[in-house]
Target: Beta-glucanase
Amino acid sequence: MAQNKKASATTTIKSGEIWPDTEGKHINAHGGGILYYKGTYYWFGEHKTEGRRGNSTLFGVGAYSSKDLTSWKNEGIVLKVEEADSTSEIIKGCVIERPKVVYNARTKKFVMWFHLELKGKGYEAARTGVATSDNPTGPYTYLKSYRPNAGIWPVNVPADLKEKQVDATNLKWWTPEWTKEVKDGLFIRRDLEQGQMSRDMTVFVDDDGKAYHIHSSEENLTLHISELSNDYLSFTGKWSVLAPAGHNEAPAICKRKGRYYMITSGCTGWDPNAARSFVAESVMGPWTALGNPCVGERANLTFESQGTYILPVQGKKDAFIFMADRWRPKNPIDGRYVWLPIIFEEDKPVLKWQEEWSLEFFDKNKKQNPPLQGKRKLPLGKLP
Ligand code: DGJ
Model:
């Protein structure tokens, strides 16, 4: 069905299909994230347009609201791109990806972070932008963008690497020597002064109110986990690396029974690849790799999708939804959504294809999400 044909609202989740909003139009909120605030879910995402140029941001970030996670009302464009001021970093035609909104209880502001690429510069700017609003549905005011953590080394890199001198001129990409140097901070050193690259990203607020910005950095080779300031608008300078040279994108994170779980993808542009998963006792790591969380047919392609967010379902204990995008780069507005319940088998998040499902899945599958019997030790083989 063409994305602009009207269709009736749905009460179940059917991944990969047209998902009509309350007006019957396919939801336009790609690379999204969800905020739950006072009884309502707000879904923020990339507002794409028709045709090959549809990934450039011509309007801004869109939002939808819902009480039940299936029926979504279009709340319009909540962060608008700048139309007139050509010096603005968010001038029409820039690229805004993977917007995530969190609520700051101290400042009572809604804070939106997003991956920002400057107009006409491809993906080389690799910045993260921030905007705020007094209301979940905006309007959001753009504040600034960052290359995070300029001048600061991560907490989990040995001190001697900071002083290491490397002549990278003849170092060939993807060779074992090069991989070793990446692990030893080659790109951190390169970008130390100007700040670290930040592309695919998410934001996570922990139970204690501290927020973390998690992003693909170092030419998408290494994930960086950075603590945000108390107002969530800047970086404190405390940060760590996860899976150096592991080539991860699309980070999505949740906390279950005191442990942190992350699901990521590999890096193959708009094409799907196999997801990866990790577990840790602390957000800053160390993280342990758990492998591909997907099982069954098309598990090697994350069911033809790439993750964007892990949504904790309100009112249901330990119920999490893995949200992903089935990109359509030739006509981005027609991109589809893949939402799957996360099943925890022992300590591992597991994703199985569901043709059509509803939130009752979590009540029926309690046995598959059993409480942890005490805290077992994490397996050996920890990553930084
Ligand atoms: C993969 C990323 O996950 C997407 O968000 C987007 O940046 C594409 N790459 C661009 O090729």
Observations:
- Confidence is low (pLDDT under 50) at residues 1-5.
- The longest strand covers residues 95-104.
- The pocket of DGJ is lined by residues 31, 97-98, 200, 249-250, 269-270, 306 (CB under 6 Å).
- The chain has four helices and 23 strands.
